[in-house]
Amino acid sequence: MGFKLTAQEGQRLTTCMLAMRPDWTKNNPGQMLASINDGPGFPGKDFEHALRALAQYATARGGNGAHQYRTPEIYPREGKHWTDTGTADWTPPKPAPCPDHIGEPAHACRCCHADVKAGIRPAERIGKHYEPESEEEE
Predict the structure, then answer these.
(1) What global pTM score does this model have?
(2) What is the mean pLDDT of the chain?
(3) Where are the domains of the chain?
(4) Which of 67-71, 109-113, 134-138 is least confident?
(5) For 103-116, what is the mean pLDDT?
(6) Which domain of life is it from (predicted)?
(7) What's the helix, strand, coil split of the chain in %, to 5?
(8) How far apart are alpha carbons 68 and 21 in whole angstroms?
(9) What is the mean pLDDT of residues 10-37?
(10) CB of 14 within 8 A of CB of 22?
(11) Could you tell me how many helices (H) and strands (E) the chain has, helices first?
């Protein structure tokens, strides 16, 4: 479980996010951040870490010079923007394991994604336990 923002920190983070990327206004980042805060929390250490990770995430550029991230949706998830901006005394949280595939992190389970592509698992069940309905023999 990650850290939680105070209400004031949430407002400040939203303001910073929109100052860096006004094009994200349509994504309603305040509501997204509140949802993460009400759920698992953020993968960083504290508010200062959240600001550093946001600055890296929001300003990252791809090889073509365009913004690497088109929306703020991936920001609250574990990633390079969190690990690169952490302090020496911070250890990234270990991701929750996939309950169906040993050794795979739930949020990015390769086996679950393969099951979705094969049509044997619904996309909303990635990283969650799933038992397909058995086919009845005729």
Answers:
(1) 0.69
(2) 90
(3) 7-83, 95-130
(4) 134-138
(5) 92
(6) Bacteria
(7) 45, 5, 50
(8) 12
(9) 95
(10) no
(11) 5, 0
Res. 29 pLDDT band, cuts 50 70 90: very high
Q: Which residues contact 11 (CB under 8 A, 6 or more apart)?
A: 30
Question: Which pair of tokens denotes residue 43?
Answer: 């993968």
> What is the rounded CA–CA span in Å between residue 14 and residue 11?
5
Q: Which two tokens stand for residue 47?
A: 């508010």
Name residues whose C-beta falls within 8 Å of residue 20's C-beta, 6 or more positions apart in sequence.
54, 55, 58, 59
Q: Kindly report, residue by residue over 41-96, the tens digit of the pLDDT.
A: 898 999 999 999 999 999 999 889 999 999 999 999 888 999 999 988 888 777 78
Read off φ and ψ for residue 46, nearest 5 degrees. -160, -175
Show Cβ contacts of residue 121 under 8 Å, excluding neighbours closer than 6 positions. Answer: 112, 115, 130, 132
CA distances from 128 to 32, 94, 101 (A): 21, 17, 10
Kindly tell me the burial class for residue 105, based on how many C-beta atoms sit within 10 Å of its own C-beta (0-12, 13-18, 19 or more). Answer: middle
